[in-house]
Fold these 2 entries.
Entry 1:
Amino acid sequence: MTAIAVAEDRTTANEPVLRTRWFTARDGTKLVAETGGEGSSRCVVLLHGGGQTRHSWRSTALELIRRGFCVTSLDARGHGGSGWSVPPNYMLEVLSQDLKDIVATFSSKPVLIGASMGGMTSLHAAGTAGIAAGVVLVDVVPRVEQTGAARILHFMHGHPDGFKTLDEAADAVAAYNPHRPRPADAGGLVKNLRTGSDGRLHWHWDPNFFRSSDLNNSHLLEDAFYELCANIHVPVLVVHGRQSDVVTVEGIRLLAGHLPQLEVFQVSGAGHMITGDRNDIFNAGILDFLDRHMPAAPPLA
C-alpha cells in the first residue's frame, strides 16, 4: 500500500497544514486521508463513525498537531472521499485490514482513536495484529445498546431520496440530535454531503454500506471482541457520552472485565456524537490520556 500527497489545506495562516494523501487498498479501493505534523515521534490515527467523514475530526486533528503529534485522519472505504467497494464489501475484517495496511506504512505504532464504527475497527485491528501503541474508543464498546444502535441505522437509512437543500439536511440532523442546538448556518454539513446524479444532496457514504457489513448486527460480534481483548496489552481509554443511548455503564463494566487496563473518561452534556456535542472537553480528555501514556515530541513553535 502506497500513499501520495496531492494537496494542502490551511484555513488560516496560524493553522497547521493538513495534507491530503491517497492509499490503495488490497482490492484496489482508493482511500483518502488528511495528515499533518509529519516528523513527530508519536502518530495518531483518527477513524470516524459510520456515516461520517474525516472532516468530523478537523478541530481535534488540528489540536493534536499543535500539541506535537503526527495525525492521519482517514475516510473509511465507502465514506467521504474514499472509494466505494465494488462489489459492496464493508465487513469489519475488511475495514480492519485497510487500517492495518495503512499503519504498516508508518515508522512506529500509532495511537488509534475511533468513534463508534471507527472504534470497533480500531479494537479489531489492535486485537488481531498488535498494531497500536494505544486505543481510544469514542462512545463504543462490544456491548452496545440495541435501541440506540437501531436509532443510528434508522437515521442512516432515512431520506433515501436525499435533500433538496442544506437546510433540509440540517433539519434531519437536528431531529436525530434534539439535545444539540441547530446551527444557524448549515454550511458545516457541506463536506458530509455529495450531489447525486439527480441533483439532490445525499449523505457522503455508500448506501450499500450496512447492507454489506456485519456491523449491521454488531451484537453478534460481542464475544469475538472479548476474545480479541486477550491480545491487547496497551493502554485503552473509553470516552463515554453521559447522555449516550448506545453505550452504558454496564457495557463499559463488561469490557473492563476483559481489559483490566481500561480507563474511562465521562463527558457530561454529550450523547453518542461526543465530538460534535462537547469537542473541547473531548480534546482535553484524550490529550490527558496521551500525555500520560504516549507523550508526543515537543509542540511546534
Entry 2:
Amino acid sequence: MDEFLGREVFLGPFISEPSPTFVGQAVFNGCVAFCNWSREDVARVLPVDLELAVNASRAPGLHPLVFIFGEQTEGATIFGGVTFPLGVRYHEFGIAIPFVKYRRGQYLHTFVPLMCSSYFPATWAGNTHYGFSKIMASMWWTDSMFVMTRPDGALLFHGTVEPTSDWFPGIHCELPNFAGMRSIFDLPILGRRENGTFVQSHFGWDYTEARVRAARSAVSIDAALAEGLTPRICTSLRSATFEVQRMTWRLSWPAYREP
C-alpha cells in the first residue's frame, strides 16, 4: 500500500497545550522515512500501558512506523529564551510510532521506542530525562547509504535514500504528505524510562531555514534493536519519505506522566 496514513484517519483527540518551552536544539540533516507495518507487528513494540489508535482508513490492518536518521549539527542549549551554541556535532537514529495512546486515555501521542546516538552526553540525557531508550552506536553516510553499527562493529541498521524531486524551501514546501508528516511530530512525544515511568516532551521541527525534497528509501534492521524491532527489510511509502537539510530540531523540557 503506497497511501500515506494521515492522522485524520486515526481516531482520537489531540492534546491542546500552551506552546512548549524548549531547552535544546540542533540543526538536522538527514531522512524521515515512513513505512507501513501490520498493526500486530507495531503493537509488539509498545509497552503494555500503551495501545495503537483505531485506524479508520481503507487499510485498518496497517499502522505507520517512522525511521529518522542523519546528522545533528550546531548543537546548542536554550536557557531563559537565549540560545547558547555548544558546537556539538553527532549522528543520530530514531524510530517513532505515531497515533499511540494510553490504554486508559484518549489523547494521541507519538511514541519513541528507540534512539541511537554517536555522542554519549546525548545518549545519557535521552535516557535519564526523556526515556528514549538510547544506545551508543557508530553511524556514517556512504554516498546514499546510511550505516549504523554497534561500537564493536556489528551491523545494526542500514538504509538507502534516493531523491525523487528537486529541493524546495521548507517553509513553503507543498510536497504531498509533508504537512501530514509535520503534524505527526507536533503531537506530544512519549518515551519510557527504564523504571517504567513515561515521559512526555515535544519536538520543535522548524523548517524556516530548511530545504526539503521527496525521496524513496529502503531500510534494513540488521540485528534486534528492542522488543519487536527484529531483523527485517522495509520499503518506505512512495510519497511519505523526505530528505531534509538544515531543519532546526528543538526539544522541550520533559514532564513525567502516569499511564
